[in-house]
Amino acid sequence: MTGTGKPVRGRYHLLRLLGRGGMGEVWLAHDEVLDRAVALKSTLVDDERARARLRTEARNIARCPDHPHIVSVFDFFVEEPACWIVMQYVASRTLAKVLRDEGPLDSAAVAAIGRQTADALAAAHTEGVVHRDVTPENMLVTATGLATLTDFGISSALWQGSARALTLSVRGKPPYLPPEVARGEAAGPAADVFGLGASLYAAVEGRSPWGEADHPAVYLARACGGETEPARRATRPFARVLTALLARDPADRPDAREAYGMLSAIGTGAGGGGGAGVGVGGSPGVPSPRERRRDGAAPGNPPEPGAAAVAGARSWPAPTTGPVPGAGVAQRAAELRTPDGERGSGAGERATADVTTVKAPRHDSRTVPSAPPDAAPGEDTPAHPPPPDSAPAPPTASEGPERPEVPGIPDDPEAPDDPDGPDRPGPGFPRRTAVLVALTGVLLAGTAGAGWWLWPWDGGSDGPSDALAGTRAVLGDVRSADPCALLDPTGFTSHGTASLHTAYGEFDRCDVLLYAREDGDGPRGARKGDFLADVQVDFASEPADLSSVPRTTRGAVTVAELPRSSDECERNLQLADGNQVWLSAEREHAESPDPCALVRTATDHAVKILNQGPVPARPGGFHAASLARVDACGLMDKAALAVIPGIDPADAEPDFANWGCDWTGGTQDVHIDLDFSRNNSLADDGTPARFDGRPGAVAAGEAGEDSCVVRTQHRVYTGVRGEQTIELVELTVAAPWPAEELCTRAKALATAVARRLPDV
């Protein structure tokens, strides 16, 4: 069938093919009688099953006339050799194409799309119509953010590509398949709600809630089991909604009206477009996502429901346990693991939407310091803790030689004291927040204990990495490798004042912060010294499956280019020794420097350094009492962990260079995360407390509703910029316990850890 020849039924002139599937075609056509664009869907007359489904689709849609979020049907007729349905033409892209083009979306933007789709489902269910195939392929999104639901009664019978049929009794696309449908039960309204949740999950997470797989049979098996993967990129409120929509038992899911109310509370909308500023990367024909709020909240009131009135939808109760999403540029969620340590390598359904989840979220907030005078950025000098309300104590000893001054970087960017403005948190360094998941039905038995120890290492290369000395694209000794050696601030001076920060969080991280050089440099209204963007380097040892993204080989380094979002961009560098380097950039404003341009600059320099040999060592190494010399997993033995029934120290999973450690299991589904980090104050980190005589802070619920975060000060020193810097142990415990009990146990663990820290 072609777009030439006489008009169909004497009035519909076929213009171009919009899509083709196993049961027919969809054409853009011109209705010569009413002078309007329409969509014509056709199937061959002799295909009785396809013809019946086309007729069913027309009838089902006709039961929901003129709904703003359901594609309208105008006519159904037969004209040999095909039968036809005439439908409303919506100039749009499917949500699936949006994700292929732009990557995962912002939680608020996805919630706005979901709110409109839930409105459509509520109307359909009221009329007794079950869609049975709510997937990103059947959700259309216009340039103004209007979302419409299409393909009633047809796609549920198709398996195209990854949606090919597995059995004659199971209908639907495997990545979005509800558990009850996977088990062969009939699809009811609750199945549509699950499909909505699975589609929204994929839109924000970049993968199916059943994970990633090479074959639809794997999705089917996981769907039968009913255990979805936790959301990690979604904001906490949105993650709770997704958890409810994806409940294993259909009776535990909200209905479509309730889903509408829940999604309305996440994002606001304007008119029919589903929200001011909703969209994807500013691309024509796709809605632009709402600017991310650092606290994950979407301000404003929910919009009024559409034609299918769903006002009064009750608020669905949030689950008592569930995923705790991260935030910021390091939001690359869970490590790609299989049960034995590495998650499967399947690219999943979308090649470009599966890989923003290759590294655990590193930070839940970014408190950007003012741009102080740029002393030569070397290792810092220890100091006694300054008394309250006083300036930091002067340095007492050198931890190592300072780096030479960086040409082109002014000593004093003359930034104001608060470049972040009134909406940012108080002063401090970013801190790591673990992805905490209350795991359902997983019980790990306890066995042996373990002690703690300081690494017998003096900053040299006499450790296990000696065999790699002189080779290219390796870290060398992981504890001496300097992440700042891979960042050249002079490469960013065309974008503003570049300031290298060597102690901006964890030990395996380095940052270049960019500030406005002059008034008006950057966003409109920007003043000299205003924060513009952050360029970041992180080391990692976890293997990442990046087979589904574009990769290039540059010397001995493999560079993987991940899908960008509007304000964030990242690259992964795979090294010859199996380690990883993550390069990322996040801009503060839409008019700040392009984050991908910043990452490209960072990548060029990092690749050049890596191809010259092992990563240069940190100047001077670490202080003798630094946490950087401690094994995090060894800080908790069996006696310390006894406050958490069933947790075994032998089950510890170390992070890079053993500067962090995780334990999961217990009889009550507990997750413990211990990390070493750096900050400049504990004043804003919760309720003051002391642990074995060391200052600290306790924050209930900081990393999720069922969490308690305890920070313990190890040592205080004065950095090269003259700022107080604190090395600290950050302990996060997540479990389905009352807040008081949870924090009591977390504080007991923190006290045990504090007793095992080296003397300062």
Short structural summary:
With 760 residues, this protein is of the alpha+beta class. It has helices at residues 48-62, 95-102, 107-126, 179-182, 189-205, 216-225, 236-245, 256-264, 595-610, 739-755; strands at 12-21, 24-31, 36-44, 73-79, 82-88, 93-94, 139-141, 147-149, 381-382, 497-501, 509-515, 531-540, 551-554, 557-561, 568-574, 580-587, 653-654, 660-665, 670-679, 687-691, 694-700, 707-718, 724-734. Strands 9, 17, 18, 19, 20, 21, 22 and 23 form an 8-stranded antiparallel sheet that branches. A 7-stranded antiparallel sheet has the order 10-11-12-16-15-14-13, covered by helices on one side.
Write a concise keyword list for the protein shown above.
single chain; 760 residues; alpha+beta; Phosphorylase Kinase, domain 1; Transferase(Phosphotransferase), domain 1; 4 domains; eight-stranded antiparallel β-sheet
Q: How would you characterize this protein structure?
A:
The chain has 760 residues and is α+β, with helices and mostly antiparallel strands. It has four domains: 12-88, Phosphorylase Kinase, domain 1; 93-273, Transferase(Phosphotransferase), domain 1 (Orthogonal Bundle); 381-397 and 428-457 and 624-760, no CATH class; 409-423 and 460-610, no CATH class. Helix content is 17%, strand content 20%. It is built from ten helices and 23 strands. The protein has helices at residues 48-62, 95-102, 107-126, 179-182, 189-205, 216-225, 236-245, 256-264, 595-610, 739-755, and strands spanning 12-21, 24-31, 36-44, 73-79, 82-88, 93-94, 139-141, 147-149, 381-382, 497-501, 509-515, 531-540, 551-554, 557-561, 568-574, 580-587, 653-654, 660-665, 670-679, 687-691, 694-700, 707-718, 724-734. The strands form four sheets. Strands 9, 17, 18, 19, 20, 21, 22 and 23 form an eight-stranded antiparallel beta sheet that branches. The protein has a seven-stranded antiparallel beta sheet with strand order 10-11-12-16-15-14-13, covered by helices on one side. A five-stranded antiparallel beta sheet has the order 1-2-3-5-4, with helices on one face. Helix 3 packs antiparallel against helix 8 (256-264) and helix 5 (189-205) packs antiparallel against helix 7 (236-245). It is globular, with a radius of gyration of 28 Å. The chain starts with 11 loop residues before the first strand and ends in a 5-residue tail after the last helix. 57% of the residues are buried. Residues 154-170, 268-366 and 372-470 have low confidence and may be disordered.
